[in-house]
Each structure stands twice: as C-alpha cells, then as structure tokens.
C-alpha cells in the first residue's frame, strides 16, 4: 500500500489506520522515533521547537520529515519507509495543523504503511504545538517509564541525501516503449477489509478510495490519444514489474523544485530562484517559471532491470499531477513522431 500526495481528507490519512486509545506507549522513552510534520513552509521551525522539548523529555526523535515529502510519489514513499526501517524507527509522532489547532498523534511504525494497520495510537489536541507537548509531558509524569535515550542530538535531523534511482539518468525517452508496453503505475487505494475502525474513520477512508478511483480514471483518460501500448497496473516494486516482464514503468515524484531535481539526478543550481519548466503545447514550445521552493510533480520512466531513469528531453515539472503527466506525455509523443 502507498498513498498519493494530494489531500482528499481533513486528516493525515495514516492516522485513520489506527485505533485511538488513552494508553500512551511506554516505549517512547526507550525506542527510536520519527516525527512527521504536516504543516506549511515553516515545518522546520516546528521541528526545532519539538526537538528541544523531546530531548528534555527523553524522547529520541532521531528523524524529522515533512508529510508532503513522505508522500512524494509511490516509489519515493516506499524508499523513504525502507530507510526509516533501516534506522530502526519503531514509533511515529505526527504533528498536524488543522486551522487553529494542532494535533499530536503517536502511532506504531510500519515499513509497509507508515503506521501499523489497526494498531493503537495515542492522540492529543491543542491550540499550539507547545500545548500538545505539555499534555504529553503531563501524561508521561503519570507513568512509570523506562528511560534509556541518553545520546539524543542537540538539533533535529532531516532525511536528506538519498538516491531515488540506482542507475543512470537519461535526458530523453526510451524508444523501446514504442514496441514494448509501458506500465503505468496507478494510484493505490487502501484495502479496508478486516480493519477494525469506527464509522467516521471508515467513511474517511472510503472518501479517500473514491478520490483515488477518480484520479486513476483521469490518468487513463490522459492516455486515450497515446499511440503506443500501455498497461495500467497497481503500484509495485521494480522487481515485481520486471518479474511480470515489464521493463519500463511510468512513475512520478513530488517535492520542492530544488529537492525534486536532486532526487531525479539533475545538475544542482544553488543560485537559481525559479526553474523554467516546459509545458504541453501542440503549436509551439511553451514554458513557465516556477519558484524553486514550490512543490511540484515530475513524471519519469524507470527501467526496472537496470534502475536507469528517463526524465525526458526537457524539464517539465508542474503544479498538478495532471499537468505534469500531460507535459511529459506530450513531449514524448512529439519526440517519437520525429
């Protein structure tokens, strides 16, 4: 299971996979924790505030992530969760901003879903992050906790400097997909079978799945004019695609412009303020400038056997996944028609 990065519910989706309880996990002062923050551009300031307090409370919050960046694409999320698993993360603390409120939720980590399905989660709500931390501290003082986290760093650590692909980045399109079928990785629904959740949670997940279905229909419609063979498939690993004899799979990444380019192997441009993106146009080449701190989508084709990626002949990231997909597909069709 993986989730897409557009929001369709008022909550962090993963929280709805857990059952809320009054029982604070006793392991929070003895096991490793990741903090996932769902806020705007100031999320790192929140991370610094949280970390200073967690350190005093004996909570080893060893990794801080932006919720948008965790959901930076299906392959991005899968590899992020694998990295968290290698760091021996056991719990996730979610900090969510809802209008004038903050919610702090502690849930069991899962390398497959970010949180363990149907496990118990502890949650408090306040008007500020500090207020939720105070509630956590009060709860901790009522418990007989075992403290073993003594080497907590002074500053928060962020998940940077990892590679999305293991092969070579090619600024082109693989000509083989004119003959071999291109696998289109669909957005993934959440399997609700067997989940013991309340009616509100089930309705929220149902709304999420309905949005996923609508987006998958949009994706299929965008390929109606594509003259070559495509196969729409559930998302899976490169190895699984290759076992089914699909050598090329269309994927996307979603991130701030400068980090997105780094993930996809583009040359660094540290002095850039905006990135010029080539957008779909049947008549002439059109471009738009997008500030580098803006979150954008970028599609690419991954070769499943080698780990190489094909990012296209022009940088064509855009604000929505529909625009980004249309940009990439239009550029590929024009190139193949020459």
Short description:
This protein has 338 residues and is α/β, with parallel strands linked by helices. It has helices at 43-57, 67-70, 74-86, 129-141, 199-222, 238-243, 257-263, 321-337, and strands spanning 19-21, 32-38, 61-66, 89-98, 101-110, 114-115, 120-126, 169-170, 182-186, 230-234, 248-256, 274-279, 286-291, 295-303, 309-310. The strands form three sheets. Strands 1, 2, 3, 4, 5, 6 and 7 form a seven-stranded mixed sheet that branches. A six-stranded mixed sheet has the order 8-15-14-11-9-10, sandwiched between helices. A two-stranded antiparallel ribbon has the order 12-13.
Describe the structure.
This protein has 338 residues and is of the alpha/beta class. The chain is 29% helix and 26% strand. It is built from eight helices and 15 strands. It has helices at 43-57, 67-70, 74-86, 129-141, 199-222, 238-243, 257-263, 321-337; strands spanning 19-21, 32-38, 61-66, 89-98, 101-110, 114-115, 120-126, 169-170, 182-186, 230-234, 248-256, 274-279, 286-291, 295-303, 309-310. Strands 1, 2, 3, 4, 5, 6 and 7 form a seven-stranded mixed β-sheet that branches. Strands 8-15-14-11-9-10 form a six-stranded mixed β-sheet, with helices on both faces. It has a two-stranded antiparallel sheet with strand order 12-13. Helix 1 (43-57) runs parallel beside helix 4 (129-141). The longest helix has 24 residues, at 199-222. The chain is globular and about 70 Å long. The two termini are 39 Å apart.
